[in-house]
Design goal:
Layout (H helix, E strand, L loop, with lengths): L2 H23 L4 H25 L5
Length: about 60
């Protein structure tokens, strides 16, 4: 499995977890904030991976 595919899988799993935590505890809960920050970091990792592979500089 490619790195991008693994990151997409992790993104989806963490997105679902965030949704369920928010539904159960509300937006103000520390668990929701922590999960949101984790999801943000995964999104950043995915974007760095994607743009590294797609936007290679031309020499």
């Amino acid at each position: 499995m490619k790195k991008q595919e693994i990151l997409r899988y992790r993104l989806e799993k963490n997105r679902q977890k965030l949704y369920h935590l928010q539904k159960e505890y509300g937006l103000d809960d520390a668990r929701v904030l922590k999960q949101s920050m984790l999801l943000d970091e995964l999104i950043n990792q995915y974007n760095r991976t994607f743009y590294t592979n797609v936007k290679k500089p031309t020499a």
